[in-house]
Amino acid sequence: MKKLQRRLLGCIFILIFIVTQTSCAGKVPLSQTDFLLNTVCKITLYEGGDEQLLKDAFALCREYENRLSRTISQSDIGKINAAEGASVAVDKTTAEVILKGMEYGQISRGLFDITVGELAELWNFSGDNPSVPDEKQIEAALPHIGYARIHVTQNGEQNEVALEDPQAKLDLGGIAKGYIADKAAVFLKENGVSKAIINLGGNVVCIGEKSEGVPFQIGIEKPFGEESQGEKEILGTVGMKDKSIVTSGTYERNFIEKGVLYYHILDPQTGYPMKTDLDGISIIGPRSVDCDGLSTTCLMLGFEEAKTLIDSMPEYEAIFVKKDGTVVSTEGVALMKE
Predict the structure, then answer these.
(1) In CATH, what class is 2-64+175-329?
(2) Each residue of 122-168: pLDDT tens digit?
(3) What distance in Å separates the CA atoms of residue 212 and residue 56, rounded to the nearest whole number?
(4) What is the 3-state secondary structure (H, E, C) of the chain?
């Protein structure tokens, strides 16, 4: 874990901020960086708020992590996974995230599946030395994947979740950060923040704009690009105002074994990394939780189906990076080259 933290502290690895260190009024922004959600997170306030509000925002994020993380045994998710099919009382927000994950299971025709917890444990991409699991272990995990067998009961403030398969395990890693980023943005805005950037390990939310008529500029990392002085090579920048941007890519969490690249986007049908013609995709839209779910879903669907899906959703835009290096953007977003 410490090795992972050192790697991530060198850069926030999905997106790079291209912003100056002063606001339009010359005020030095307030910023805090912390390690949570198994990644490096950074919140910068450009207008409104103070150091205590920054601390409170991180405390809120950690509260959600303690509720939604698969790796925390006393979290709601940890309790569900240990219940062997019994119904578990959970917080309302936990039920909301699970239902959102199930929604993307439907949108992706089962490719995005939040019951891949056991499979994710086998691959252990967040560990210091991940390796290809034993084939028999992978085969044994596959029958226990199936989001349609999750049962969520909501009755006012009472929420319960049960897994029909007692050996199934939830993993909300493909959607929880987006949900938490949205909640952090609401919290900051309710407390007087009008300009800020929230970056939860690459799940980015921009509150307001840098200055009147001038959006924040967010860099899109080049898949498998060069690194210079701790900074990743970027394809270009995107102007952002009151929007979220989330990137998924085959270059994020991966390892090479016997000359083969393995990455963390797992196919629930085979148990191995998903075969796709995309190396990266960035989704831009009003809600980070949906940008999060869409980015993973689109990477798994591949370029043609993914573009058709995003074209059918007028609130969302996408930047696709194909394996041959070709970059394609939907009509409503412009990638500004360096």
Answers:
(1) alpha beta
(2) 999 988 899 999 999 999 999 999 999 999 999 888 999 999 999 99
(3) 28
(4) CHHHHHHHHCCCCCEEEECCCCCCCCCCCEEEEEEECCEEEEEEEEECCCHHHHHHHHHHHHHHHHHHCCCCCCCHHHHHHHCCCCCEEECHHHHHHHHHHHHHHHHCCCCCCCCEHHHHHHHCCCCCCCCCCCHHHHHHHHHHCCHHHEEEEEECCEEEEEECCCCCECCCCCCHHHHHHHHHHHHHHHCCCCEEEEEECCEEEEECCCECCECEEEEEECCCCCEECCEECEEEEEEECCEEEEEEECCCCEEEECCEEEECCECCCCCCECCCCEEEEEEEECCHHHHHHHHHHHHHHCHHHHHHHHHCCCCCEEEEEECCCCEEECCCCCCECC
Of the CA atoms within 13 Å of residue 257, those in its CB half-sphere come to 11
Question: Rounded to two decimals, what is the model's pTM?
Answer: 0.92
What would the pLDDT profile of 198-217 be if each residue is shown by its tens digit?
Answer: 999 989 999 999 988 999 99
Whether domain 70-163 has CATH 1.10.3980.10: yes
Domain coordinates of the chain in residue numbers? 2-64+175-329, 70-163
Q: How far is Cα 290 from Cα 103, in angstroms, rounded to an integer? A: 10
Name the token pair of 10.
């060198």
